[in-house]
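Lecture notes, unit on binding sites. The following record was shown on slide 14. It pairs a sequence with flavin-adenine dinucleotide.
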Amino acid sequence: MTDLVVAGAGMAGLVAAAEAVSLGAEVVVHEKGDRPGGSFRLSSGVVWRYRELADFRAECPAGDAELQQLVHERLDDDLLWLEGLGAPVVERTTGNPRTVGLRLDPVAAIDALARRGGVLRLDEPLRELPGSAPVVLATGGFQADRELVREHVTHEADSLLLRATRWSSGDGLRLGCAAGASTTAGLAEFYGRAMPAPPARVEEHRFVELAQLYATHATVEGAGGETFEPRAWSEVDVVQWMARQPGARASYRVPVTKLQESVRGRTIGEMVVAAEVAGATVRRTSDEVVVEVVAGITTTLGGLAVDRSARAADGVWAAGADVGGISTGGYSSGLAAALVLGRIAARSALGAA
Ligand SMILES: Cc1cc2nc3c(=O)[nH]c(=O)nc-3n(C[C@H](O)[C@H](O)[C@H](O)COP(=O)(O)OP(=O)(O)OC[C@H]3O[C@@H](n4cnc5c(N)ncnc54)[C@H](O)[C@@H]3O)c2cc1C
């Protein structure tokens, strides 16, 4: 007999399954894709929190304060738990003095979790709620569904670059809402990166290395001529703005004097060359370099509303990017929220069953 059904074998779903199995449950994990890991597999693997809870509140002011506190308070223990399962740690710092956390090897962490997570059914999306067992929805948000993105995020949905797996297309949102769940504020918000614009080719294994992370050093001009002054260190504000410009595009004009400046371990000049080699239009004069970029959507930040037990509706719990309202108004680690809420969802679902 199945005690728990999990939809999605990304960070949140694999964690929920491993937690449930450790509590003695029989678990079935449905995965829409042909491999486990979801966007976690494509990620940099940095699982982090703000050093201070007050910073988390200030960075994501419209987010749910209770859920933010849960993530903040539980993350360190949950990372120890993950390490204990055999997830290898590559680095014990985030490189950002305002945050703490670990860099994991995503592929090895996925293998470690999948070994402990019950029966994994690849290429078998959950299409309807099972009814016979509690379910944890962990399908990774709705960024891959053009219509949902057009409805909630931007009319330029067709022009966005999908910087995530193609399978996270809002199934959790639809299933949860059909079961009576409500949605959070901030459905229009997403986390993403500026990426080399077409004709550049951006394959999924290059999502991390091709990110263009120097908006705060550039003059940012939308394809319609509007300019934008980025404020957020994460640059999530400029990417969301860009997503609403014609073609979801912008130009980054960078003075040549800034090309040697370093951002997260790479110089701006190196990032520009990477964009150019990938095929983006780059214009150089003696004073400046102009790079054509497009908004890349990584995860939607709005989604199902849950309580502190990760419950979304009767018999339905949710975790990861299917849960909205944690980073509303800013940015925090999606992997951290998936880890913490994934464990909570499994325990709550089994307790309620
Ligand atoms: C390039 C890149 C870099 C990133 N870097 C970081 C980082 O360093 N730190 C950080 O915190 N975050 C990072 N992220 C974001 C992070 O990967 C996500 O926040 C995280 O993976 C969300 O976890 P999840 O379990 O909700 O979704 P996912 O890990 O994406 O898993 C969702 C899974 O659900 C599956 N699915 C979808 N529909 C169904 C269905 N109907 N039935 C069954 N399965 C279904 C999908 O195929 C997928 O496997 C990055 C993402 C990318 C793409």
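Take-home: The CA atoms of residues 282 and 291 lie 5 Å apart.
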